[in-house]
Amino acid sequence: MLARKLIINQSIQSLCRNMLKLNIQQQTNRTAAFLLSNSSSRRPKRLCSTIVPALGNRYFSTPSATKSLMEFFDDSKNWIENEVKVGRAWKLDELRIKSNKELHQLWYILLKERNMLLTMEHECNDQMELFPSPERLDKVKISMNNLETVVRERNKAYHLLETGETGERPQRLISNCLGLRHIYRSSEHVLPPYMNVKWIKSRSIGYGGKAVRKFLLLYREKLYNEKRKAKNRARNEVMMLLRRNPNIDRNILHSKYPNVNIDKLVSDDKTRGHYLPKIEG
């Protein structure tokens, strides 16, 4: 009986092995036939970086089409470097003249670059090593924010042209439980407001009481002191500039310090320098 079971198991294993080889061979033959039939009409996909035209003679490169985990890491040449030379962030004016297709491609390039930089930063922190050129993350973040701004501008223009509305989520100023004002963006709900009791209870929290009034008093005092100190700081800077450079252009000062009364400071005694005026005659 035992020998019979062993013979049956061996026969089953050999049968499964032959079926697996047959399936692999059939799949290989099918793939080869498909490639041969489409070789004249379709080009094979290259596993190298491609160049996408951006603006006229300007180009930006897309990453390789290989699908491996090494795409989450930087080039091995930069692993031992303390500084990696990179360009600047994308500006709004440069993104506004691009098409929607180019913006879509650029967004995924920046997204992939951000994922790679975050992976490298995490790995460097685990290995207690210096992350080379950490400002690359800031440049990618600025570029992505500018790209979102350009896309939002185009969406607003399209909705204003088609429907007369911006298409943005409606928002309004509301007060929280501490009396602080903040912007609330409306969102869709399954139930209308008058039927959603849970939503009404979460939004009907008022503010009041002695502690809240004291907090608001101190908070407004803090804001007033910050505003007052900023105004005095700008006034002192203008006074110092006028003292060192009596013939400075006042239009430039007006554009840089719009909240300072420069005409009044000119006649102030503190703006006069420690020098004797020239007497003509």
Automatic annotation (TrEMBL):
<keyword id="KW-0687">Ribonucleoprotein</keyword>
<dbReference type="Pfam" id="PF06984">
    <property type="entry name" value="MRP-L47"/>
</dbReference>
<dbReference type="GO" id="GO:0032543">
    <property type="term" value="P:mitochondrial translation"/>
</dbReference>
<dbReference type="GO" id="GO:0005762">
    <property type="term" value="C:mitochondrial large ribosomal subunit"/>
</dbReference>
<comment type="similarity">
    <text>Belongs to the universal ribosomal protein uL29 family.</text>
</comment>
<dbReference type="InterPro" id="IPR010729">
    <property type="entry name" value="Ribosomal_uL29_mit"/>
</dbReference>
<keyword id="KW-0689">Ribosomal protein</keyword>
<protein>
    <recommendedName>
        <fullName>Large ribosomal subunit protein uL29m</fullName>
    </recommendedName>
</protein>
<keyword id="KW-0496">Mitochondrion</keyword>
<dbReference type="GO" id="GO:0003735">
    <property type="term" value="F:structural constituent of ribosome"/>
</dbReference>
<dbReference type="InterPro" id="IPR038340">
    <property type="entry name" value="MRP-L47_sf"/>
</dbReference>
